[in-house]
Specification:
2 domains; about 5% strand; mainly alpha; about 300 residues; about 80% helix
Amino acid sequence: MKLKNIYQENKEIMTVILSILSGSTLVLINVLIIKSDNFMFTATNIISVGIVCLPITLIYYKRYKKIQAYEEIYPDFLRTIVEGLNGGMSLPLAINYASKSNYGILTPEIKKLVAQMSWGINFENALQNFAVSIDSPIITRSISTIIECHRSGGNIADVLSSVSGSLIEIEKIRRERSMMISSQMMTGYIIFFVFILVMIGIREFFLCGFGDFGSTSIDSESETLFESSSISKDTLDKFGEMFTHLAIIQGFFAGLTIGKLSEGRLSAGAKHSLIMALSGYLALTLAHELIIVLGFSCEQRFI
């Protein structure tokens, strides 16, 4: 099991290193070769960021979901231990008794805990190794409570029952929060896409009204000459790039906010950030290309 964990960790490290090297190489090629094409330059940068961030995000999110699965099944393990304690068993024997049942994803870790105790490893050290292997803050705190209770000689069955009840309540609150926040998550997505539509409208229609219509006017009172500056094609392109970058930035931070609200962790918002940033970029880029194809672009209207 330890060799398997080491192999998994090394595999994840190699994946991260390869993704960073691939993304960095693509950025270097982009800067040296494709820099003259604004569309390809921005698209390649987005792809580079995705190559770097996506594997890291998937690895971290996979760990997060695994820990969440541990925390959901862990109270059942504690309740089985309480049954053994109420039957007159000591805590190590009750854990051994509980290991006979199936706890899904938690079963291998429990088997490893029992194996360590059977090899003569100190009971408290085996529990600490169990907590370190799972790497869940909630389970780590409960293990610390169990160890302290075992040292002090209190009623361990009552303590475990209380811990199990607390974990169940925490999981219930987490699910209720997720259900309550789902409407706010949808609102966040709607607000973001409305923002994208506003950006498209400003870029493709509003700014066109200021293009190539230079004129001069004189204020009759102050007799000051004003020149109303026209917006050139290059300036419109720069505005387009700025709006595209703004949509990507807005999508990234809006996604992190949604993740924090829905699941309580910024890391959970990584998938929302990726979806929203990519959607914003594609929406602005494809809308611009479609408008050009249909003949509604600023340049075509000014001819």
